[in-house]
Amino acid sequence: RAALPAVAAAPAPLIGMERPLEERLREATVLVVDDIATNIKVIAGMLAEDGYGVKVAISGRKALEIIPLHRPDLILLDVMMPEMDGFEVCRRLKADPATADIPVIFLSAKDQADDIVGGLELGAVDYVTKPVDPAILKARLRTHLRLAGTMAELRRQNSAVADNAQLREELERLSRYDLAAPLAEVLAASGQLLADPAFTANPAHRAR
Fold first, then answer.
1. Averaged over 24-39, what is the pLDDT?
2. Where is the PTM 4-aspartylphosphate found along the chain (predicted)?
3. What structural domains and CATH numbers belong to the chain?
4. Which of 72, 101, 161, 208 has minimal Cβ neighbours within 10 Å of its Cβ?
5. In the chain, pLDDT over 90 holds for what percent of residues?
6. Residue pair 108/86 in contact by the 8 Å Cβ criterion
7. Cross-strand pairs, 53
8. Mean pLDDT of 26-32
9. How confident is the model over 173-183, as a mean pLDDT?
10. In this structure, are residues 105 and 140 in contact, taking their beta carbons and an 8 Å threshold?
C-alpha cells in the first residue's frame, strides 16, 4: 500500500492566547538615536520612568548596526546627524523587509512643513519637534506602540487562520485518500476473482 501523505503539524494556538496588549507594551524596547549625548540622557531617562527598555545609538550607522542584534519595538530618531542623517536611516530601514515594520518617530528641531512631510513620506509614523514636551512624546509613543502591537497581533492571527485552513485541506485530502485506497483494493481484488476461470466455473461462486 502506498505511503500516506504527510500532514503538517498543527500550528501553535495564537488567536486569543497572547498576553494582553497593554501588558506587553509595558515591556517594549525603544531605541533612541541622537548624536548629542545630553539629548539621549534626557529622553532615555524619560522613557525609563515609564518602565520601557531603552537602547541608545549616537549615530545613524551605529543604529543600523544595533537594530538587527537588538530589534527595538520603536525607534526615536533624530534627523540632523553627521555622516548619515535620520532621513537616510529611515530610508534604509523601510527598504529592508526585516525592519520595515518597526515604527519610527522623528525627533527634530527642523519644524518646517517640508521637513515634516518628507519624514512622514519616508514611512515614519510621527514627527515630533524639539524641544520635546515629555507628556506629548510619551502619549505619541504609547499610541504608536499600541498600533504596532495591534498590527502584529492581526498578522499573527491571519497567519494562524491560513495555517489552519491549510491543515484542514490536508486532513480532507487524507480522509479522501483513506476511503479511496481500500475501496480501490477491494474492487481490484474482486476483478481478479471474477477474471479467474476456476472461480467462475464453481457453481457455488456463481450463485453468490
1. 90
2. 78
3. 21-157 (3.40.50.2300)
4. 208
5. 55
6. yes
7. 29
8. 90
9. 62
10. yes
Distance CA 30, CA 73 (A): 6
CA-nearest of 61, 56, 57 to 46 is 56
Residue 12 has pLDDT above 70, yes or no: no
DSSP state of 10: P
Helix crossing, 86-95 with 113-121: angle to 10°? 20
CA angle 143–138–38, rounded 5-degree value: 140
Look at residues 203, 180, 204, 184 and name the one whose alpha carbon lies nearest to residue 192: 184
Containing 29, the helix (H) or strand (E) segment is strand 29-33
CA 118 to CA 121: how far, in whole Å? 5
- The dihedral built from the CA positions of residue 38, 44, 49 and 50, taken in this order, carries a sign that is positive
Per-residue pLDDT of 89-142, as tens digits, reads 999 999 999 999 999 999 999 999 999 999 999 999 999 999 999 999 999 999
Query: Of all residues in the chain, what percent are helix, strand and coil, respectively (each to 5)?
Result: 55, 10, 30
Q: Are 167 and 7 in contact (CB under 8 A)?
A: yes
Q: Residue 5 — φ and ψ, nearest 5°?
A: -65, 145
Residue 7, pLDDT above cutoff 50: no
